[in-house]
């Protein structure tokens, strides 16, 4: 490397013939035959000669080229390869463009097809939105480590164990999504954070359920004819989950069969896994009573728009000083089946919409036990209404 620096001038550059001329200190000017020109720096690192481009001329002036050369010569003096160091800096700067919030949004978008109702209910994203993004959303995902995650999750790790578990699960998915995008992230960060947080003390609590022997009295007390009461009655009669019940649409009902679309059934994501619900005589009676309230085809519309919420039905039970909640009626039904009915396990579980057996077994078993479930649900209906008859 020549010790003499700043050999060139603006006039020299304008008059230069095709070829390479040195400015000194490893900085070279290359004039091409086609009239174009560019700067490059020639250095020796660890005994190996390296050449790195510094940009085209005249976009990069003589003065700017000398400043760049000074910068990278300093890097060489520190024992680093300037080309690799420049690439490292570029990657680092690029990572700062991928904030956790942006990657989380992208991960959510890519998974909407797998989620109930395309994730419109917001439940997949909510744990992140409420408990993670307010603290880490504006941090580049590549900069987030287990300590950051631990500090973020610590306030809810034991107090809101189920929510914390969901948030950690979603965050792990976002990290894997980032890795698939080619970003440099620590895929074990969430597992390491769990180790730092320790075992959760909080024990998950089952949703309170009314004993099956008491369900008929409660069912028969729902005699006001309101949308909420009719919704609860059909929920109890069919033993379905709240979501498909609240979004029940007239187009889904054909005769005495209610077909719940796959996207509204928990655990069923493909287009062929819709769920047929046999409707008892009493269930059809409730539907007939609900039809006058229907709006846009939905049997149980909300007071102002949309459909009734979970809180609407839960609120009715709460006002009656009950600790039980609507979802618990599924447990009440299952206990009634177990204690009073002699039906195969597969029929009882399918009545709740549960997937029974392994994938191979399900591939060979094509029935959904509709006829057996029809008999079972008619008996459940008779049990609920026996004092009304």
Report on this structure.
GO terms for molecular function: DNA binding. Belongs to the 'phage' integrase family. Residues 205-377 form the Tyr recombinase domain. The protein has 389 residues and is α+β, with helices and mostly antiparallel strands. It has 3 domains: 10-95, Double Stranded RNA Binding Domain; 100-197, DNA polymerase, domain 1 (Orthogonal Bundle), CATH 1.10.150; 212-385, hpI Integrase, Chain A (Orthogonal Bundle). Helix content is 48%, strand content 10%. The chain contains 18 helices and 7 strands. It has helices spanning 10-15, 62-77, 82-95, 100-111, 126-131, 133-136, 146-157, 161-180, 189-197, 215-221, 227-238, 242-246, 281-290, 310-319, 328-340, 345-351, 359-364, 370-385; strands at 19-24, 27-31, 37-45, 48-57, 253-254, 257-260, 275-278. Strands 1-2-3-4 form a 4-stranded antiparallel beta sheet, covered by helices on one side. Strands 5-6-7 form a 3-stranded antiparallel beta sheet. The longest helix has 20 residues, at 161-180. The protein is elongated, with a radius of gyration of 34 Å. Mean pLDDT is 88; it is low at 267-271.
Topology:
Elements: H1 10-15, E1 19-24, E2 27-31, E3 37-45, E4 48-57, H2 62-77, H3 82-95, H4 100-111, H5 126-131, H6 133-136, H7 146-157, H8 161-180, H9 189-197, H10 215-221, H11 227-238, H12 242-246, E5 253-254, E6 257-260, E7 275-278, H13 281-290, H14 310-319, H15 328-340, H16 345-351, H17 359-364, H18 370-385
Antiparallel strand pairs: 1-2, 2-3, 3-4, 5-6, 6-7
């Amino acid at each position: 490397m020549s010790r003499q620096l700043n050999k060139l001038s603006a006039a020299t550059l304008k008059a230069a013939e095709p070829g390479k001329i040195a400015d000194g200190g490893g900085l070279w000017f290359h004039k091409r035959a086609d009239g174009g020109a560019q700067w490059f720096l020639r250095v020796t690192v660890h005994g190996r000669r390296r050449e790195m481009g510094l940009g085209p001329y005249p976009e990069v002036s003589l003065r700017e080229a000398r400043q760049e050369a000074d910068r990278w010569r300093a890097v060489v003096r520190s024992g680093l390869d300037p080309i690799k160091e420049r690439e490292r800096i570029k990657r680092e700067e690029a990572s700062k463009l991928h904030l956790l919030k942006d990657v989380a949004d992208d991960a959510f978008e890519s998974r909407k097809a797998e989620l109930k109702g395309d994730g419109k209910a917001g439940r997949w994203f909510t744990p992140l939105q409420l408990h993670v993004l307010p603290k880490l959303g504006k941090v580049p995902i590549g900069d987030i480590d287990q300590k950051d995650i631990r500090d973020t999750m610590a306030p809810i790790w034991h107090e809101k164990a189920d929510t914390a578990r969901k948030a950690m699960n979603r965050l792990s998915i976002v990290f894997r999504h980032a890795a698939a995008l080619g970003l440099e992230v620590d895929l074990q960060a969430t597992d390491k954070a769990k180790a730092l947080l320790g075992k959760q003390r909080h024990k998950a609590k089952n949703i309170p359920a009314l004993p099956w022997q008491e369900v008929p009295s409660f069912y028969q007390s729902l005699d006001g004819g309101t949308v909420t009461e009719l919704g609860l009655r059909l929920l109890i009669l069919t033993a379905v989950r709240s979501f498909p019940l609240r979004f029940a649409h007239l187009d889904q009902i054909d005769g005495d069969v209610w077909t719940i679309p796959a996207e509204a059934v928990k655990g069923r994501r493909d287009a062929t896994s819709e769920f047929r619900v046999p409707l008892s005589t009493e269930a059809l009676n409730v539907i007939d009573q609900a039809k006058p309230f229907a709006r846009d085809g939905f049997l149980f519309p909300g007071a102002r728009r949309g459909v009734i919420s979970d809180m609407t039905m839960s609120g009715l039970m709460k006002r009656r000083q009950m600790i039980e909640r609507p979802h618990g009626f599924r447990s009440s039904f299952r206990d009634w089946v177990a204690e009073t009915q002699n039906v195969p396990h597969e029929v009882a579980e399918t009545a709740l919409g549960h997937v029974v057996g392994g994938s191979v077994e399900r591939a060979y078993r094509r029935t959904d036990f509709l006829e057996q479930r029809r008999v079972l649900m008619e008996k459940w209906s008779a049990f609920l209404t026996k004092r009304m008859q």
